[in-house]
Design brief:
The structure is a single chain. The chain is α/β, with parallel strands linked by helices and 443 residues long. It folds into two domains: 162 residues, Aspartate Aminotransferase, domain 1; 261 residues, Type I PLP-dependent aspartate aminotransferase-like (Major domain) (Aspartate Aminotransferase, domain 2), CATH 3.40.640.10. The chain has 13 helices and 15 strands. The strands form three sheets. It has a seven-stranded mixed beta sheet, sandwiched between helices. A hairpin with a 2-residue loop joins strand 11 and strand 12. Helix 3 runs antiparallel to helix 10 and helix 4 runs parallel beside helix 10. The longest helix has 22 residues. The chain is globular, with a radius of gyration of 21 Å. The chain binds ligand PLZ. Ligand PLZ binds next to helix 5.
């Protein structure tokens, strides 16, 4: 294994000829429904760089959608996963268990908020974790309704599609959806009619009123929210919103679930984003950053809630695969050793300063927000708050063409989001921001 040089290098058009050739093969055999943000075919990746088949090296502001926080070839992840691979690839935890699974659950109990007794169950994908959180909350409360929020994203399976708010591309034509899912407002400060300072109190009051009037609190098994809404546009619910909703859940025997699949594991400069307002969720779903790129997810929470599902009621052939667990232990070890929470906060400091300078020059930057290495700009039409998805797409394209991988998101497709690996060098980070600034000048 050779480490990828931490330097941007553009030697062909992006995508280059070899990527284009592979894209033609892909188009012949890979289903059209599976898209790619930028069809450059990867050969190596690590630190803050993705190398492609044409020899280009891109600066990575995406981390494979907030997954490779420790880099895509972190030493401890590779070492531990390789060692495990040589011992055994699979036994199925439901058939004969192994220590790695237990160790990951011990780490989750230690790292997640709250000092109550905790238990975990491991799965493969984020969506699977969310589905299981709903199963567990229903088993515990013996209630059915699930409350989710405007702009929320929870996955692509049938139940999690129902929990997800945005129709295109996630839901359109894929119904019917799972029943007993209800959506209420979230405190989206930038777009709250009476201003961000009122959003927390007003939105929580509206959400709670809707739950009481339209569902009945006694029918609600779970309230599920992303403490920073990811796909919906990196929306940080205005201060006061999350505590009010969590308190309402507690007062009414509702399981409060924090979906930290995107925001968890040091991404926002804390182990979990809900710590920012001192929230202790009953259940927390994690995936993505947990295992340095290997597929692993978890539901962690209060032991008495987690134990409500009957023996044999939770599981899956691959859930908590031993190689993925080894990767998770390597990823967590790296986060602790390199203090990646501090790195994420440093990334925020650098990015917000540079983005504020860009905003002073370009009035299409409506809002700069996010925490840690989960930062975004919301783009609007000049002199208004009208969403500007065209400028967002043009900026992303301009960045891609010079070797800076950025992603977009948002209900209106007008949010440019930055999710660099937390281990990215400051020189690469600043070079990426220079390229972004050039892109603004060009668009
Ligand atoms: N919950 C908060 O962010 C995954 C989706 C990409 P899976 N987000 C990236 C796409 O277009 O499919 C996500 C998330 C939150 C749940 C999920 C689902 O996680 O591992 O993709 O199933």
């Amino acid at each position: 294994m050779t480490a990828v040089p931490q330097e941007r290098r553009v030697v062909t058009a992006i995508p280059g000829p070899k990527s284009q050739e592979l894209q033609a093969r892909r188009n012949a055999t890979v289903a059209a429904g599976v898209g790619s943000v930028l069809p450059v075919f990867t050969t190596r990746a690590g630190g803050g760089i993705i190398e492609d088949v044409d020899g280009n090296r891109l600066i990575d502001f995406g981390s494979g959608i907030a997954v490779t926080s420790v880099g895509a070839s972190a030493e401890a992840v590779v070492r531990r996963a390789s060692a495990q691979l040589a011992e055994f690839t699979h036994s199925c935890f439901m058939v004969t268990p192994y220590e790695g699974y237990v160790e990951v659950c011990e780490q989750l109990a230690e790292l997640t908020p709250g000092d109550h007794p905790k238990k975990s169950a491991l799965f493969n994908s984020g969506a699977e974790a969310v589905e299981n959180a709903v199963k567990i909350a229903r088993a515990y409360t013996k209630r059915q309704a699930v409350v989710v929020f405007d702009h929320g994203y929870h996955g692509r399976t049938n139940l999690t599609m129902a929990l997800t708010s945005k129709n295109m591309p996630y839901k359109n034509g894929f119904g019917p959806f799972a029943p007993e899912v209800y959506r209420v407002p979230v405190a989206y400060g930038y777009r709250w009619p009476s201003g961000p300072e009122n959003a927390g109190a007003e939105a929580s009051a509206q959400a709670i009123d809707m739950i009481n009037k339209q569902i009945g609190a006694d029918n609600v098994a779970a309230i599920i929210i992303e403490p920073v809404l990811g796909e919906g546009g990196f929306i940080e619910p205005a201060k006061g919103f999350l505590p009010a909703v969590a308190r309402f859940a507690k007062d009414n025997g509702i399981v409060f679930v924090a979906d930290e699949i995107q925001s968890g594991f040091c991404r926002t400069g804390q182990w979990f984003a809900c710590e920012d307002e001192g929230i202790v969720p009953d259940l927390i779903t994690t995936a993505k950053g947990i295992a340095g790129g290997l597929p692993l997810s978890a539901v962690t929470g209060r032991a008495e809630i987690m134990d409500a599902a009957h023996s044999g009621g939770l599981g899956g052939t691959y859930g908590g695969n031993p190689v993925a667990c080894a990767g998770a232990l390597g990823s967590i070890e790296t986060m602790k050793e390199l203090d990646l929470n501090a790195k994420a906060r440093r990334i925020e400091e650098i990015m917000k300063a540079r983005l504020t300078a860009i905003q002073e020059k370009y009035d299409i930057v409506g809002d700069i927000r996010g925490r840690g290495a989960m930062i975004a700009v919301e783009l609007v039409k000049s002199g208004s708050k009208d969403p500007n998805p065209e400028a967002t797409a043009a900026l992303a394209k301009a960045c891609h063409s010079v070797g800076l991988l950025v992603l977009t998101c948002g209900t209106y497709g007008n949010v440019l989001r930055f999710l660099p690996p937390l281990v990215i060098g400051e020189d690469l980070l600043n070079e990426g921001l220079d390229l972004l600034e050039d892109a603004f000048a060009g668009v």
